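Supplementary Methods S3. Complex input for the magnesium ion-bound model.
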Amino acid sequence: MPPALEEPTFVKLSPVAEAIAALAEGAALCRRVRADARFQTKGDASPVTVADFAVQAVVARRLYAAVPELALVAEEDSRSLRNEAARDMLGDVVGQVRASVPGARAEDVLGWIDLGRGQPASDFWTLDPVDGTKGFRRGGQYAIALAHIRNGDVVQACLACPALSLPVAGLSDAAGVMAIAARGSGAWVRPLAGGAWVRLRTSEMDDPRLSRGLRSVEGAHTDEAWLNRILTDLRVERAPDRMDSQAKYLVVAAAKADWIFRLVPPSDRNHREWIWDQAAGALLVEEAGGRVTDLEGAPLDFGAGRRLERNIGVLTTNGRLHDAALAALRRAWPR
Ligand code: AMP
Ligand code: MG
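Predicted complex, serialized as structure tokens:
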């Protein structure tokens, strides 16, 4: 049966229309820059590449041009790039931004990056310019993630996955997709190159044994022993696939997987998630019919600052498997 001919109207409205254009520009930049291996190591030992800075600059610049009053809370800031030691890297970042914005100067680029220094208050947007930087560097999945948060709730989301091919009804197998969601209006996807929007719906799988799971590639972003206890408890037959970034959420929203357990690592039980790592993906799954909570079943509270300070871990499911997953989580809880 051909997919129903529905079209989301909110994608044509400001600022979602500008967000889509900004993320498409960022995605094009990522594809160009992927070969540039230059990167820095941040204070928390995570890598930051030319693409992280350059994408933040072009996306923030475009958003502010369209919506000057916007408050943006973004992952990167320009401090490390202003170091003399980072001169070559800054040169690369400016070079990449110039491919989008001819004539951009270093001071312009640093200023655009710092547009992301907004405060997480009652109404703001949050940006992860390259979510899954490790995946980006190793040729895996990565995403550009942008979400609008109002009173602690994600109300609009836009996610570009330049390396993801998502064969859902009405969408070709072409790699590179853009997904959007608005609270109460559904979640949608289309090829990055453009075309019709296709509505996303989570799977109807309700048998944990046959379910398909996703987990981080990074072992340090989960608790492998805990995860194994849960899988054994639920008698899940297939090992979860490993995937970097919020692309995982889009795969669940598109019914190509049924759940994601984001467990806190034993090396850092106090780890709290960054809001820009979860916000866009969480709304996509919820608007596709799934459920997203913390590991105790509480809703994610995006009103607690730059991290999800009031939530431990994240459980994402198609909806139908959620209660069974929460019960297994509780039974397998590390003590
Ligand atoms: P993923 O690709 O799903 O593993 O998530 C990547 C994100 O995990 C990065 O953007 C980091 O901000 C975040 N991260 C870093 N350290 C940890 C950790 N110890 N536990 C969970 N997430 C982390
Ligand atoms: Mg990230």
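The chain is about 30% helix and 20% strand. The mean pLDDT is 94.
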